[in-house]
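Extended Data, panel c. Modelled sequence:
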Amino acid sequence: MFPVARAALNLTARSIQRTAVRQAHRKYEPDFHDKYGNLVLLGGAVVFTAVWGYVFTQAGIEWGLSPVGRVTPKEWRE
């Protein structure tokens, strides 16, 4: 390996080791996802279920997926 490349890898490895040591000594504090992650997930599931429940029951969409017998050609207008 070339000396310049070896020195660059060595510097990168040392900075990663320093960062890991620094983070290992830091006291763990819960972040947003630790505090509210499950609530946000459950809230999203509730909204998802409510919206699709409305769509399936109240929106008046006909869910016949096959167009056979329903699509008829119209007269051509010029």
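Helices lie at 3-25, 32-58. This feature is highlighted in the accompanying rendering.
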